[in-house]
Amino acid sequence: MYNEINFQDIFEKKKPYISDKMKKYVSFLAEYSKIDSEFEITKKCMQRYKAWLLGLRNERGHYLLPSGIYHNLEYIRAFLNILLNEKLIEHNPLSPFLKAKELKELKNDYTQRRETFFKEKYMTLTDEELLSKYLEHAEKYYKPDFMDDLQKGVQTLKEYSIKSNKRICGFNYKDIETILDELIILQMYPSIKIAAHTLRQKCYALRAVLQWMYEEGYKEDDILKDWKESVILQIIANKNSRLKSLTKPKNRRYTTKEILITYQKYLKETYENYDDFKSLFNNFKLFIPFAESRKENLYTVNKETIETFKTYLLNYEYSPGKFYTPFYQSDRIRAVKRFYDWFTINRYSTEHPLEDFKFSQYQTTITEACKLRQSTVPSIETVPECFKNEYERICEHEKTLGLSKGTFHMHDIGWRFFFYYLANQEIKDIKDVDEQILELYQVHLHKSKNKKGEPLSVHTVMRHLIAVKRLFSYLSKYRYILRDPSICINLPKIEKGLPTAGMSDREVKLILKDEFGEKALRDRALLETLYSTGIRANEARNLQVEDIDFVKGFVRINVPKGGIKYQRVIPIGRTACSWIKKYINDVRCRIKDLNTKYLFVSFKGKQMSTGLILNIVKTKLIKSGIRKNVVTHSFRVSCATEMLKGDADIKYVQQQLGHVSINSTERYLRLVPNDLKIVHSKTHPSERRKEII
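RE: above sequence
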């Protein structure tokens, strides 16, 4: 009779009235009605169902607890009453339902099974075998995301077992408290405390492992049976106060200078990438003047200070029409938080003004604020309507001159800056610009500031003025204006001292020291190329694979400084060629989505930027331990000076470097005063003395 009843259909019809927990019973009925054609819903059937439930596991792979099974039976009784009312069964085998009796029987069955397991399994496996068995079991129930947390929880237990020389099956609650203390002071990244979410996941993982060991008989007692959700949340809530009690505070207050020196040293030791170190340190240093302007120091900064700083960053107009981007603002706040992570975890202070700071929420807020401002405040990036004709004409003209992209870009920035200034001065016709206006503009440039709040460099001012002179030269030449007022502009004089700091051959070898990995191989090939050829960073980034003649040992420079008329073919050494070949064969060909002819590319398959090349140089410099202000150009200087030291004719050095004028090359001679040293040794009285102190 019962095997003809479609229990699933009845369940679906009555679903609004029946708990979701009924699914287990429906599954049981469907399964047994197929197996046993004489199947009936009787007390014997219900005993079989209880046994079936005792063998079931929940979604986390644990056996159902007696209390859970009891609640499930209560729902079954309600379901059977529905079947009785529908006259599909003759009686309800769970009526009457005696709570105390049923619960006691379930607890006895649960305990008896565990005791049997304990007698059979306790101390039969090593810790390694036990934990491997658990992970194998957990993989059947947990999603891959949480499996990673479980593996870390297993590793935590394993490490503590080794450290304490104690078997995991013998752990007590005091051991768990010690593990918790170690987790709380754990730095997931140097000087970054473990996040509340991470600590919570680790607590869940510990509970899951130890509960399984208890149920399976590998552990005598369930030491984490009281770790309900509320207990774990309380552990997390007490995390910060517990951390303070576990770490020792500094015994005195340090000056800002002392703190910065220690913090800088820490960042250098922590971050291998120069850009990461530089960005965090420099962005944080810019916060200090702001705090000091409010008569605060690093110890007294609080949440109010941070809120004021955020407002300052959002509204600061460092140059007319120029505001900080959301990305730049976020980087500044991130740097401050990173400092206070380090500051508090090393117990300089107990107060963290950005403890609960949410970056995603902050970034969303400032992005919306910046978009709103762009819609209401004209940007310097937008050329005023009254000057669009002049701007478009000069752009079209300059594109016909064969200038490099970099040169054109610099001129473009200068024109936009100038047109924005004129519009702000309510000058709407280029013909109204005279010598006095240009003089005021030159003064304005000297008063303008960059992103860091510092005056524009002499080079930047000069580039802006050159752009203006080119604009008026073009307009007057083609009779768009009657005369050129920019002839009054005197470009600022830039004194040329010694070239950028170079390196000796020994220092270069230290920087080129062998490292392992694909990135190290690419970087070595790049730096060997810079040192061997003396080419500029922009020339290196624009090299293509076909530009290297490996047989004859030459390299073609297709994108030189000054444009295509200065293209050249120069020698490249065998060592550099060897490393380039290795890079092409072992690294470059394996990069995914590579769709470019450029020789040196990022691992996203894109052409390298000069910024990335500088980052590679600076990162190598930090690792080498050389204390010099070495930059990409230093390899160019080193190439030239080493050639001159080897008695190379200065004309050949000029050709190698691609200097238009030999005067530029002669500057490098000042770094190699060999002849002067010989004359000095022969003629100076103190050098001619025989005695040496």
